[in-house]
């Protein structure tokens, strides 16, 4: 019986080794290294975004849309231009413009450190494998180490070839407002050339007074105007 158990253990070990699947620590290390390499190589790009926000509930329902142009210059300069807008003006100002301001703030060095996907901010747990846009990815459960509006609690899908975050399904570690009782995030990235960019984002919120809001963002028309080949780890 002991020989049987020993043989089984050896067989299982061989199977694990044959898959070539990295350990959790290796996934995290490669993710950090390759993300840093891509960030260092990407100097400038432009893109368009379609924002659509809707609210159903008390005291009345409302909606708004906006098309936004982004000009990015490394390391952290983001210039947003609202090309056109329609619908409730107060929703454009209080939701869409606020989202743009928060993104600009989050890109600053002091806030990037607070929100970085690393062991200083999160605990990680391997949760299996999946596919995103036809590509193999590793599922990691992420748990924030503190309540912070720049962190989230949920699951990420890490591309098995590029070690880029391909998908995030989570909720904020800290509600962005007292008036929000629950919020969820469903975010997807896509690969363009050697780099990964946002593709879609769906955020939903439940308002304490009674009502539900949804913010949808579609990212399009990426044009990389200044970049080098990312260094290979």
The tally of strands reads 10
Q: Strands of the largest sheet, in order across it?
A: 3-2-1-10-9-8-7-6-5-4
Order of helices and strands: HHEEEHHEEEEEEE
pLDDT < 50 runs, ≥5 residues: 1-18
Q: What overall form do the CA principal axes indicate? A: globular
The proportion of strand residues reads: over 45%
The number of distinct helices, counting runs of at least 4 residues, comes to: 4
Secondary-structure blueprint:
Blueprint: H1 2-19, H2 24-41, E1 42-57, E2 62-73, E3 77-87, H3 89-106, H4 109-115, E4 122-132, E5 135-144, E6 152-159, E7 165-172, E8 180-192, E9 195-207, E10 211-227
Antiparallel strand pairs: 1-2, 1-10, 2-3, 4-5, 5-6, 6-7, 7-8, 8-9, 9-10
Provide a descriptive summary of the structure in words.
With 233 residues, the chain is α+β, with helices and mostly antiparallel strands. It has a single domain (22-227), classed as outer membrane lipoprotein receptor (LolB), chain A (Clam), CATH 2.50.20. It has four helices and ten strands, in the order ααβββααβββββββ. The protein has helices at 2-19, 24-41, 89-106, 109-115, and strands at residues 42-57, 62-73, 77-87, 122-132, 135-144, 152-159, 165-172, 180-192, 195-207, 211-227. A ten-stranded antiparallel beta sheet has the order 3-2-1-10-9-8-7-6-5-4, covered by helices on one side. Strand 7 and strand 8 (180-192) form a beta hairpin. The longest helix has 18 residues, at 2-19. The relative contact order is 0.17.
């Amino acid at each position: 019986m002991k020989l049987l158990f020993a043989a089984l253990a050896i067989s299982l070990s061989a199977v694990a080794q044959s898959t070539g699947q990295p350990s959790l620590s290796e996934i995290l290390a490669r993710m950090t290294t390759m993300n840093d390499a891509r960030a260092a190589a990407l100097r400038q790009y432009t893109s368009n975004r379609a924002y659509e926000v809707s609210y159903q509930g008390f005291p009345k329902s409302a909606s708004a849309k906006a098309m936004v142009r982004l000009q990015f210059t490394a390391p952290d300069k983001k210039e947003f231009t609202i090309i056109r807008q329609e619908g409730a003006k107060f929703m454009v100002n209080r939701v869409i413009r606020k989202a743009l301001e928060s993104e600009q703030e989050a890109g600053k060095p002091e806030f990037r450190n607070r929100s970085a996907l690393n062991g200083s901010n999160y605990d990680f747990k391997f949760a299996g494998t999946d596919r995103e846009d036809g590509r193999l990815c590793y599922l990691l459960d992420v748990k924030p180490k503190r309540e912070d509006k720049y962190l989230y609690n949920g699951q990420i899908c890490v591309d098995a070839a590029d070690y880029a975050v391909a998908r995030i399904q989570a909720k904020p570690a800290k509600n962005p407002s007292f008036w929000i009782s629950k919020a969820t995030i469903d975010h997807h990235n896509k690969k363009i050339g050697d780099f990964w960019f946002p593709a879609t984002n769906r955020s939903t919120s439940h308002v304490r007074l009674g009502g539900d809001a949804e913010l949808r963002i579609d990212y399009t028309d990426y044009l990389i105007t200044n970049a080098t080949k990312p260094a290979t780890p």
